[in-house]
Structures are given as C-alpha cells and as structure tokens.
Amino acid sequence: MINPIVKHAFVIVVGIAACGLLFHAEPLLGGQPISQDVAPYLTHLRKVLPDADTFTREASVYPYFHAYQEHPTNGTVLVGVAFFSEEVGAGVTGYSGPINMMVGLDLTGSLRGVTVIDHQEPYGPRSIEQPIFQRQFIGKHVRQMFHVGTDIDTVSGATITVRAATDAIRRGSRRMMRAYLQSRQTEPSS
Amino acid sequence: MTVSRVLISLVWLIIIGAGGLPSDALAQSGSGDQPATLSLDELTALMEEDEAQDSITSMTPDELLDIGGLVLVLGIALVSFVTKHVWLKYGVFVLVIGYFGFAKSSLVSIVNIFAILEGNLPTFRHGVPWYLLIGFTVVSTILWGRLYCGRLCAFGALTQLMDRIVPARWRIEPPAWFDRRAIYLKYVILVTVLAYYFTSGDFLIYRYVEPFWMFTLNGTTVMWTLLTLLLFATVFVRNLYCRYFCSVGAALGILSQLTMFRIKRWRECNTCKICEKACEWGAIDGPRISVAECVRCDDCERIYDDQDKCVHWIVLRKSAPREPTV
Description:
The complex is a heterodimer of chains A (190) and B (326). Chain A has 190 residues and is α+β, with helices and mostly antiparallel strands. Chain A contains 4 helices and 6 strands.
C-alpha cells in the first residue's frame, strides 16, 4: 500500500531527526556557553550601553552586567545594567527557534540599546537584525507597552519574529529592573 | 452555498468584533503622572501585567485581525475545495499569492520542518497564526492529502496560474520513465538538507533550496538568478518545482500516506486514460493515484462528476436500458 520509496524517505527523515536531536540537544547556535567573563560580549555591551566605559559581570536573582562610567571627579560611577533576555527568564521562541536579545538600561529604567545575540528566524536578517528595528527601543521606559503595531513597527512577513523579540525585550527589561532594585535593597550601603 | 456563507459571515463577525474591542492594554500604559523613579511594587505589577498577557484573552485588535484574516483565507480555500468550483480555485490562487505570499510571506518552509523536528515551536502567544496554518496543513493532509500544496502554497498557486496562462503548445511533458524517477528527487533533497542542517546548524540554507523567499523581494544576486532559471523552466514544464524539488512537498508526501479520504476510482479507470492525461501533477498512473504526488487540484474529480466525459457514467447510461434497475 505505502510506496516503498516514500517509506524509506520517512525512515531516513526520522533517523536524521533522531540523530540531529542527539547532537543538537545543546543547540550549536543558541548554546554558546555563557562566559563569566565580560570580554566576549564587549562589542554587544558597547552597542547597548554606548555611554559606559567598563563592564562587570554580576549575579543576583539572574546573571547580568553592570556598566560604569569613569568620571573625572566622582571616580567610577554605575550608569546602567545590561542583560541577555534568555538569562533573565524572558526566553522566547520565534518562528523557528529561540531568540536571544541583549538589552542595556540606564538606572531609571529607560532602554539605552538593544541587539540580537542569537536567532534562527528565516526573515530575521531583514527584521530584528535591522538597526531600524533596534533603534525604536532606545529611550523607551519599562513602563511603556512595547507593542508591535502600536509603538513598535510591524515588519511585513516577519510578524511572529518581531512580536517574539519585542516581548523578550519588554519582559526582560522589567525583570531586569526588578532584580536590580532588589539587589540595591539588600545592600543599601551603596 | 449556505456553508460558505455561514463561514464567511462568521469570519466577518470575528474581524468586526476585533475592531470594536476596547483596547485596555492601550489605555493602561500611557498615563504619564507616574513617579520618576521605579519602585519594586510597580515593577511587580508590570511583571504581572506581562504574565496576564500570556493568556489568549489579552489579544490585541491587531493580532485578532491577523488571525481573522488567516481563518478567512483558510475558510475560502476549504470552500473552494469542497465545492470543486473551478473559478473559485483560481480566485483562491490569486488570494493566496497576495495573502500568504506578498502580504504575510508565510509559506510552510523547510525551516518549519527543522523547527518541528527540533521541538522549537513558537511561543503560543505570538504564534497563533503559525499554529493555525501548520495545524490546518497537517490535519488537511491527513484528511484529504496535500491540500496545502494545491491550494494554500503561494508558490504552488503561482505556478498553477502560470500553467493556466502559458499556451499549452509550449508545454513539454517529461517522459513517463523520467517522471517516475524524478519525483523522488524531492525526497533526496529533503533528506540532504535535513542532514546538512543537523550537522552544520546553518538554517540559512533554506534560501537555496526553496524559492519562497521571493515574496519578500529580498534576495542576493545568486538567489534571484536561480529563481529566474526556475521560473523560466516552469514555463515549459508545469509545476516543475513542486513535482521534483520541493522539500516541504516531500515531507507532506510522507505525511499523505496516512490520507483518510482518498479520491474514488471506478472500475473503468483501469483502462480509461482521460484523468491520467488531465492530471497536471503526473499523479495518476493507470488505475492508481499516488497520494504522495496528488495535491487535490480537483481536475480529475471534476471529470468524474461530468456525466458526458467520464467513461463510468457513459457505460452506465448505455447499459441502463438493458438492465433497467440496479
């Protein structure tokens, strides 16, 4: 009844998928092991927090980054925080895989910059990778709604990708600010 | 057609309902008289708002409109399949080229197969249209066969429209011995691309194995050159890509082995060749219809229903006087 060649194709596809899942369990793309070091992320960090001079890796509720400015009179001043959306529990899956964003915020809760770390979206290169998408978030406050179609532009053909990335940015930023405020409260000296 | 009318009015209701929704989400955020500094309580509230957004009831008019549009298009395609109306079919082709092609660029792609095999399903909240389209594709394939290929795929619709427009005398029918082997090329492509993806992790390979990106009008010179060659060849060999190269079609071909409601065949089909000749897809081989190749275009079913064309009815009519009642 079943065409033998189609049946073989099916067996091979299932076989490949099984092998693929074994090898791919730690995805080659999404899963670069997160380094405790700042150096590998400097390019991204400079992009999302352009005013900062130095960065440190921090960990409270989640791992994230502190950004400092070297001030001639006040010395080293904390000016912002940055995070990977996947690390603060704002992981999203877009059209065809996890999307990891990095977002930089100043200490009042305004976004200073956004960049894409990882994605597998077919139309990603012409949507979330574009500066025109990423620039829309600069200056937005975590209180704002970040809503595709309202205050964030839709990209035709990449709706799911753009919605998922926007969601990761909004959720992540809110969680980040909360974690930051919590860490301030537990060490009131600074 | 009452069924279609009910369906269409339902969809309009959804769309109108979506337009009239009070946009709570919009009203909430704009209030500007918040204190300058954030408090923990405020952030907790904002995070709770995020959690609440996970529920389907928090859909915005924009998203509901998207879903309504998709349901409408799927509904019209289904109506055209059920009614077998030939002009409605061509209407659907134009509709899907516009909607799934240029407007949404959401064709089922090899990338979806990567994602499904890896278990990378979109977050449900943003992916409702994705789940609807993939769900419809899978369910309709299991019920009737590769309905997606024949009705919803914008590229397939484009080549079928081309076939309608291009003069028949230009057509080159591949010889049967060639066709019989070449149809398996798509399975080879599917397997190769999957093996390549799972070893390299390079999902961008989709750009060279399928032409579906064309509707985004975004491509490199190499991609446009390949596409031009493909479309040029399609002028002469109808549905060339779908029949021999499409990896999504191959995957659906595998799935279509489960098809429940197949096209019926008469005893007369053993000898009659009318449908075999009419089939744009080379899916009919004597009495047998290959489900993996058939995209349910209805061409043969329209012949079955035509009492002046289908040998079954002609034989029945001629034998009627001799055997009055059956």
